[in-house]
User: What shape does this take?
Amino acid sequence: MNGMRVRVLFFGQLKDIVGLDRDEAELSDGARVEDLFERYGRRFPKLAEFRPSIAASVNQEYAGWRESLSAGDEVAFLPPVSGGEHVATVEDIFQLVRESIRPEELIEGIKAPEDGAVVVFDGFVRNNFPGKRTLYLEYEAYEAMALAKMREIGSQMREKFQIHRIIIVHRLGRLEIGETSVWIAVSSAHRAAAFDACRYAIDTLKRTVPIWKKEYFAGGAVWAEGEIPAEIPSQEAISRADESTS
Assistant: This one.
């Protein structure tokens, strides 16, 4: 039987479990995402325990477990995220940065004479984890996919709300207490649209963009729990589709 090679990526606590962030795997033709995960699950039993809460992507798009793989695919296994198409306008900004976010510089760049409102969400590092004092945080991302998902959010915002400009910036790496981790700004002619769009942006980012947070405190560290992105095809939906075509 012919074989194929795929690239495999691990993030967040999954990377800690397997001890590496990337690998290459040889599979038989016709192998599915679930076959690849099962192989790693046999090598790392603790990884297999996470199966109900792990998401998978193929070539930077969320994928169902029964999706077939092809030679050269990039498959990522993702812990729950802490993410007709429209092209974002040149005025929109979507960034992942490792230096401090500077809101005072960004806010001036979003204002325009035709705007009447700018709404900002500034998420920053607090000094506590339930029952513990936080020392600092570390953020990591599946960067290419995260940026693509941030742009998708921008397109969705333009479809849903009458807004002008969008800025979404997320920090990666080590952050100290009080430092901004995510900064979102939306401008519009009227405040209601800007408020609604800004809330939509942060809520959707937290559900769908593959970014993870590790919280450090005296005596240890823990990856923050997230949720499985809603846009991933469910096994039940895939099964119904298979039955309808059989």
Remarks:
- The radius of gyration is 20 Å.
- DSSP finds seven helices and 14 strands in the chain.
- The helical segments are 12-18, 33-43, 45-49, 103-110, 143-160, 191-208, 235-245.
